[in-house]
Amino acid sequence: MKYTMYFAGLIACFFSIVAVQAQENKFLNSPARKLQLAEFAIANLYVDEVNEGKLVEEAIVKMLEQLDPHSTYSDPEEVKKMNEPLQGNFEGIGIQFNMAEDTLLVIQPVSGGPSEKAGILAGDRIVMVEDTLIAGVKMSTEDIMRRLRGPKDSKVNLKILRRGVKELLPFTVKRDKIPVYSLDASYMIKDKIGYIRINRFAATTHEEFKKALAELQKKGMKDLILDLQGNGGGYLNAAIDIANEFLGKKELIVYTEGRRNPRSEFFAKGTGEFQNGRLIVLVDEFSASASEIVTGAVQDWDRGVIVGRRSFGKGLVQRPIDLPDGSMIRLTVARYYTPAGRCIQKPYESIEKYNEDLIDRYNKGEMMSEDSIHFPDSLKFKTHKLARTVYGGGGIMPDYFVPIDTTLYTKYHRQLRDKGALMKAHFHFIDAHRKEWLGKYKTFNEFYKRFEVTPDMLAQLVATGKEMGVEYNEEEYQKALPLLKLQMKALIARDLWDMNEYYHVINDANESIRKALELLEQPDFEGLLLKKR
């Protein structure tokens, strides 16, 4: 018996050694070993000194480029910048600002934040941070932000120039966590119709959305316009939580599946606060990923009407892989599918073609005419409740198409915007008239109804444009005039109040919102979907 156990142990040991050797041989002959040997040889034998870290980073980037457009590598600094907006906060002094003539101009201190508590006001100019001059020295915005940000409870000394005060004012600001909101706006756009705009799907999005929804419902909201135009995505869980607000219990929201990732399904819990009201979702060519998850779920369950233009078409799921130095690989591990089984990922033959897709769409006329868009029969799917035809393979196609409005956009307008003339002229107006306007318009509603951009303001804009090298064109100026007036009014509203008021003004020119309001005037809402079978 003793010998039997001995030989059994010996045999087990032998096979373990064989298995280990097999694994070693497999590794020795693997592509990974080849890569390791190449890096070792370069680092130790190359004629000149090399930066190993940079070489490895570039090798990783090149490998990922061979996979798909959304598998990426980010260095530690890029990871930090990427995570802050999605985490919902960062640590700093709490101001909204713009750079005006090489000087940091405070647009608004964050309500209840460190700067407001310290006494900093909208319109103040930050001239010095500690003993370093930051105004008029061509310092990059990134460098300025790095000086203003810092750990919670740390202090930073500022010197500020305030309109009407000759000397610089000293302030000491105690840094704190500053919220980064993912909702740009929420307001009653019309009697019984609420409007919510989400700019990204972050860790705090669901909480922000529920709060906004409750406030609108208190004001009598029965119908909702959810604006996802320009929303490039974010966290999958945030998208699932938002979709849950609209769908019934056990209705599938999305599922994911990949080569090494078995099918995972995500269902609505039936706890949503807006399961029954009339819903319209706005999308455009920049609505992607998490935005398309929400839109696809709403469309596949015939829960609401989708309005706008075909969405971006990103249906790949990335898994973040943290590396020891703080860098990160975001690796595509699965595709996501809408409840009807659509994968809305657009083709990616090459990164070059992929990156030029939106330009190709524009050149082919797709953004101006619904008839320019064609899907093969193989990409047809049926919605769950009304058996309407919907399409996969390249973004979410809206139920009601709204062409891009090119009538107001001219070369002259574009140059005023791109060269910063519009922003510079607006800073001049807000700086000179802030107190006057706040005294004249006690509420935003008064401003919205009564404020008009004056001929003097427009003349100042044209003069500012000339100073910045924008050649005046009378025909193009007249064509762009309604849009210029609206943009100036919206920027002033933002600086006197906040982004909510900015969108309240600028949305007056949004054709998709106009279409949504037109559809909500129809008594037979379900009939709007049946027309699109």
From TrEMBL:
Q: Name one Pfam family in it.
A: CtpB_N-like
Q: Name one GO molecular function term.
A: endopeptidase activity
PDZ domain: residues covered: 79-164
Keywords, A to Z, come to: Hydrolase, Protease, Serine protease, Signal
Q: Write down the CDD domains for this protein, in alphabetical order.
A: cpPDZ_CPP-like, Peptidase_S41_CPP
Query: Source organism's superkingdom?
Result: Bacteria
One annotated Gene Ontology cellular component of this protein:
outer membrane-bounded periplasmic space
Signal sequence: where?
A: 1-22
Its BP terms in the Gene Ontology are: proteolysis; signal transduction
Kindly give the PANTHER family that the UniProt entry links to this protein.
CARBOXY-TERMINAL PROCESSING PROTEASE CTPA (PTHR32060:SF30), TAIL-SPECIFIC PROTEASE (PTHR32060)
Q: Which family does it belong to?
A: Belongs to the peptidase S41A family.
Kindly provide the name given to this protein in its UniProt entry: S41 family peptidase
This chain's source organism reads Phocaeicola dorei
Taxonomy of the source species: Bacteria, Pseudomonadati, Bacteroidota, Bacteroidia, Bacteroidales
